[in-house]
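We now fix the convention by which a protein and its fold are recorded. The integers have meaning only within a learned vocabulary of local backbone shapes. A record is reproduced here so that you can trace the correspondence yourselves:
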Amino acid sequence: MPSVKSFETDMKRARRKKRAKRNIKNLTFVLAVVMVLGLVYLSRDAWLEFFDGILDKHQHTAVQYDGTLEGGNYPIDISKKTNTRIGKMSKNWTLFADTTFYVYDSSGDIVYSAQAPYSNPIVEESGKRALVYDQGGYNFTVAGPRDTIYSKRLTNQILLGAIGPDGSAAIVTADEKYISYLTIYDKSGSEIYHWADGTMITAVDIAENGKGCLVSCSYARGGTFRSVVSRLDFSSTEVPMQTVPLETLGFEVRYCDGGFWLLGRDRLYRLNSDGGVEFNLEYDYELSGFDLGDKLAVMIFETADGSGGTVTVASVDDSDLGTAAITSRVDGCYVTDKAVYILSDGELDAFDRTGNLLATAPLSTPYRAFSVLGDDVYLLGYRSVEKIEFSI
């Protein structure tokens, strides 16, 4: 029977053989690498020209604009107006000023205007339609680029509203029987759908085809807020899809590529078309601005003193987040399929989904909001509306 001593001797011998083989293998690999590098060096004149400038070609450089203001009808004087908001509809930009809704073309000419003498006017725009409603009041108007489609006065107070690209309008009202009540109007103003489930409707988004919508409803339980998103079909009384309760107070829901976003007070959800959670982002800082798009979502988190903050970009494609630091107060944001626009105190910037700067332009005066139409940006100031070129 082999002794313990002979067993240890055999193990040492086996280890020495294994170590010797490994050393020979490593030496052979090193010699092969040296030979390849030598051949590469000797033939460098044949291939080096191919790589000449390749780093420069792929190196990203942000487009620098000088922020030059357009002439013509610009600037548009709004110095005598106190309540102003800027937006866009179709190929035009829009301005709500005091009690009037204006539609302007790119030259700064008024295409159409309509009176909307509301106490607390809210403007929602999509495609070729705009919804102007009196939040807390009883009136709303649906307008097109060149005329008023219809106006209505309701018997119940309006809580919130939404407009679809096809002209369908969603109006949520207070109700004696329900906390909130949803009514859908078609593009001509006829009522085509009603819905309520006993909870508070906090957000609505109408599908692009106008055949259904997303509704976010919130409630409090156990000291926390929860939200449930339902997908409704205007041709059916059944609810085709409903999510599980999601742990946030949802105040914006939006269709996106492959599903939808739910933005809450302390969390962003990306859900698929069946209502399943693809990913969610919980944030500890107060949300000061946001925009949700088909491909991207942007959120602005400001510092406590309002002197700067962070831009966070989420994509429908994956759960990786892009971030960029802002060193001044953020006044507005806007998202497209490929870029995020940020208006800060002193400049306008555009970032990609990873937070890389695509374009920037200094601004000579402060602006409160902006609207993007192609390669032009319309800037809403305190005394005027300006226009600059800003192509990415």
